[in-house]
Design a protein that fits this description.
237 residues; 9 strands; TIM Barrel
């Protein structure tokens, strides 16, 4: 499996405090069947440049090689939608058109649709991170669906689907899955214990309820497309 949303870089946001914990997170991921991770530190300003993120990813990969941990980390970011849209371009995932966008947790900004469309018109492909945990979407999931088009994508958190975030978020995650609007499932891991990089529970739950084909698309095929810049496959495809 490929985890497209993981806070694995040490000392950069609210993820692991040190490299030792980053290594342990990678061990957990490898045991769970994850062999590639996109590092997605929170980006609220220009404090951490894409170049620095890439350097930190390189250092972590060298450490994982030394420890014989079969996980490859790739540079990315989780970019707050309130940033200057012209700066957002710098944080696309690994020189692809894909960019992971984070909304505030308590609401959908009034300008969200216009900004997503503006990014799409400029050639980017926004991926909305964990909308099932957004208070506005939980209250009315249809508000998210109105923001989507063929080049705007949805990524939900595996633990949302399996109920670790509570029944309301789980219901919203299942609503989005049933609607056919979920394109990727990721861990959004932050630590080695609380919110660890584990996807197998969600992968098994997805396969049981939605079928093996859907599971492969959400945990492998589409994450690989994000890494390589290929087209993400939609539910109807």
């Amino acid at each position: 499996m490929i985890d497209t949303h993981c806070h694995i870089l040490p000392g950069i946001d609210d993820g692991p405090e040190d490299a030792e914990e980053s290594v342990e997170m990678a061990r957990i991921a490898a045991r769970d069947g994850i062999n590639k991770i996109i590092a997605t530190p929170h980006i609220y300003d220009m404090r951490y440049s894409p170049e620095e993120i890439a350097q930190r990813v390189d250092r972590l990969n060298r450490l994982l090689t030394q420890k014989n941990i079969p996980v490859e980390v790739h540079p990315g970011a989780e970019v707050f939608i309130g940033m200057d849209p012209h700066i957002l371009f710098k944080y696309a995932i690994q020189d692809t058109p894909y960019i992971l966008i984070e909304f505030p947790h308590d609401h959908l900004p009034a300008h969200a649709g216009k900004l997503l469309q503006w990014l799409s018109d400029k050639g980017l492909k926004p991926i909305i991170a964990h909308p099932e945990r957004n208070h506005s979407v939980i209250r009315s999931p249809e508000t998210l669906l109105r923001l989507l088009n063929k080049d705007i994508y949805v990524q939900i958190t595996g633990d949302s689907l399996t109920g670790e975030f509570g029944p309301d978020i789980q219901y919203c995650a299942h609503f989005l899955m049933e609607s056919g609007k979920v394109d990727i499932i990721a861990s959004d891991a932050h630590a080695k214990k609380f919110r660890a990089p584990v996807l197998s529970r969600a992968e098994k739950a997805t396969a049981r309820r939605f079928g093996e084909k859907a599971s492969e698309r959400l945990f492998q095929t589409n994450p690989e497309a994000v890494l390589t810049g290929r087209e993400i496959l939609r539910d109807e495809e």
